[in-house]
Amino acid sequence: MNDMRLVERDVEQVQGKIEARGVQVHYGEKHALKDVDVTILDRTVTAFIGPSGCGKSTFLRCLNRMNDTVASARVEGRITLDGQDIHDPRIDPVQLRAKVGMVFQKPNPFPKSIYDNVAYGPRIHGLARGKAELDAIVETSLRKAALWTEVKDRLEAPGTGLSGGQQQRLCIARAIATSPEVLLMDEPCSALDPIATAQVEELIDELRAQFSVVIVTHSMQQAARVSQKTAFFHLGSLVEYGETGQIFTNPTDPRTEAYITGRIG
Amino acid sequence: MKEPHILSAFDRDLEAVQAHVLRMGGLVEQALLDAAEALETRDEALAVRVQEGDRAIDALEETINAECARLLALRAPTAGDLRVVLSVMRIAAALERSGDYAKNLAKRSRVLANMSPLGGTSSSIQRMARTVVLRLKEALDAYIGHEVAVAEDIRARDREVDQMYNSLFRELLTHMMEDPRNIGAAMHLHFIAKNIERVGDHATSIAEQVIYLATGEMPGEERPKAEMLPVSDVLGPDAVGGR
Questions:
Q1: Residue-wise pLDDT tens for chain B (243 aa)?
Q2: What is the Cα–Cα distance from B123 to B109, expressed in whole angstroms?
Q3: Per the CB < 8 Å rule, is B78 touching A220?
Q4: pTM of the model
Q5: Does A253 touch chain B (CB under 8 A)?
Q6: How far apart are CA B224 and CA B74, in angstroms?
Q7: Do A261 and B81 touch (CB under 8 A)?
Q8: Is A221 within 8 Å of chain B by CB?
């Protein structure tokens, strides 16, 4: 039967990359995330969907301890990356974020040259010995982000001068320059036109060969297009987590069905 | 039933294609009943009307397919909505085939109108047609109500139609053996019976779509079947041995 299926969509990975158990998040009085258990697979694109305020971005931000920077946020529960607790006091959050990279909704290149944007991470983490090695990292990252051919002749031009879609791919290049193991993307295409969106989606599909990608998206069709696993969040709870094809053709939970078919917001 | 979509035009589109299928079902049911009636009463004018009416059924199927294609392209339906679209297309195909069988029945009834009747076979066929039409109606009703239990029951009862076909088969063989001049009419009647039996199979496949629509899974193959009659059972071993 295997050859009859859409091979691209097979989730062959069974190895967990990130394990979250009993994760709770409070913002002050607000209980934003309730007891979330999930295993994010290695080399797989996982989409988080759900209405605004459902907790999906909050959970995404737990995965690289971005909530540490929010004063009112309180995170409980256990999250492990390759078996290691990310809240372990010996873990340096900056090192963690080098391993678990992030791309945001709006492209936010540094007000520096294209080259320096990508070289920034490897420089501060001391990943390159010498200029030649740094050049190589910048080129590979820009190539992986499908931006190299467009910018190779103007690497010293400011990153902010690029188009929106190019800026977002520059941010992706910047995020992957530190060779992360997991890439978190919080609505990476919401500010992009359809062509730039398609380019980023193609890129996500290619990145899956090396990284575990977690993407938060409001576009159900985008989740259906790029992911192998989909998690549906509603009112702070993880309602359903499963293979993307199953979620979009025959979801188990009536709330998932109501959401993906456009019946509840 | 489900709560409405936030985008109400989506609901209107889904309801429209389903309404078309039900209208198509109504036309097919009437065509089958009329064709069987034309056969029984030797009403050639009625038979002609059935033959001509098939165009409307075919046109409805085309409309349904075009609208489903639009729905898939423009609304990108998922989950239960996707299954509505897929099941509507499959049911429309089953109904279109059933309509063709009604048309064929009407055509053969016009030939048979000019031949001497074979006992009570045409009324047996009418009975069989009524049973099948009832089955079709039940399947479409189950579709409207997403009634899985009713659909399972329809699947289980397909054997009744198979048995009616088998007994007609026996009856027709007997007529042919009694007098070879009956063979022409009996062959036509046999094709008619076989086609009605196939409509029964389509009713079953519609019932299966009800199950798919409601559960997301196609039922398994464990449907009971009437056994095929070996010819020797009907004719006796001597007859098969050859005279």
A1: 578 888 888 889 999 999 999 999 999 999 999 999 999 999 999 999 999 999 999 999 999 999 999 999 888 999 999 999 999 999 999 999 999 999 999 999 999 998 888 888 888 999 999 999 999 999 999 999 999 999 999 998 888 999 999 999 999 999 999 999 999 999 999 999 999 999 999 999 999 999 999 999 988 776 656 666 555 555 555 544 433
A2: 12
A3: yes
A4: 0.80
A5: no
A6: 41
A7: yes
A8: yes
